[in-house]
Amino acid sequence: MESISRAIVPPEGSYFLFGPRGTGKSSWLRAAYPDAFWVDLLEPELLQRYSARPSSLAEELEGDKRVRTVVIDEVQRAPDLLSVVHALRERRRSLRFVLTGSSARKLKRTGVDLLGGRASVATLHPFMACELGSRFELSAALRTGLLPLVLGAEDSRATLRGYQALYLKEEVQQEGLVRNLGAFARFLEALSFSHASVLNISNVARECTVERKTVESFVQVTEDLLLGTRVPVFTRRAKRALVAHPKFYFFDAGVFRSIRPTGPLDPATEIDGAALEGLVFQHLRAWNAYRGERNQLCYWRTRHGVEVDFVLYGPDGFFAIEVKNARRVDPADVQPLREFQSDFPAAHVLLLHRGERRLNVNGVNCAPCDEFLAKLTPKRSAPFG
Question: Which of 64, 119, 161, 189 has the maximal Cβ count within 10 Å?
């Protein structure tokens, strides 16, 4: 697809750029560093060469003093290169290394310390609505998500269907992350029912007929592969008894829909609601990441079932957001936000809905979801206001 400017701001100096497959890391880097010395470890010949002799990278760079920026794509495939990178950075301070990966798991497993903490870490997420501008359309985003790989495909739905298989083959199987690939595939389907919901490990284990400890390890693999993440409960200065379990979200609404099984017992409204909440989540997560991970992204749920979907807390402010997949807002819909604000008067609250107009219901501001997403940009220090 045509070039679209991304909201991410590259860190100073050398850095790791993580992000799931298909988020456009390579495309963005080629545009940002057109003259870089490029090592693409997805190419079998290069992977074999640098895995067998990591020192060959030093020989090549020492032979060309003109190089200022080095990009190593999918560095987790040859983690021994990091020791070479570390040595080169000590000898040639002018060199900048940009190391990309769709998984940090192998780097952690092999004991690599991410260059002794001397390199920054950045993450590239699926498109934000503000990056797409007039190309953004809420209903389409809910169907197929916002992965550049998918939006640039001739058949976006077919690409989505193959995305899970790509990860299972390229990341899980080849890297030997799990012993039973079939069990992991069943786990992903069972996990999709927990998208935008409180994650209950025991329930997931029962659904996919896998032991609880195995499911716990599978959830960690899913997070390490950047396919999903757990969101903790906001507990700061809690005045009520709160639940302890986190919520779970896949990183992209389209990927969630491609994994989620459907049938006569699966109401479309239920899946649409989870997709909408997930779409808002991925935007808030990207906004926070591109602002330097300055804020905590949590949710709030009492033991009595009163829940607020998202709480942002940090230097950029204190915000609570509720998402409703409905065109009409009833007074009962804003009650969780009112209760949250009664406990935390300093919080700014907002309800997002599928209607077309801004409202104020019982003192709570309500805004169209597509309008909110379009205006959410990392250049603004607050998600709304």
Answer: 119
Whole-number Å distance between alpha carbons of 385 and 383: 7
**What contacts 250, CB < 8 A, 6 or more positions away?**
192, 195, 227, 228, 256, 259, 278
CATH of domain 15-123: 3.40.50.300
Q: Show the DSSP H helices in 155-244 as ranges.
A: 156-166, 181-192, 201-208, 212-224
235-287 pLDDT, tens per residue? 999 889 999 999 999 999 999 999 999 888 788 889 999 999 999 999 999 99
Structure tokens of 58? 């030093």
Q: Residue written as tokens 């501008």? A: 133
Q: What are the structural domain ranges in the chain?
A: 15-123, 129-375
CB 106 within 8 A of CB 229: no
Residue 126 CA to residue 141 CA, distance in Å, equals: 11
* First-to-last C-alpha distance (Å) of the chain: 33
Among the listed residues 120, 74, 102, 124, the one whose alpha carbon sits nearest the alpha carbon of residue 289: 124
Residue 94, Cα to own-chain centre: how many angstroms?
Answer: 32
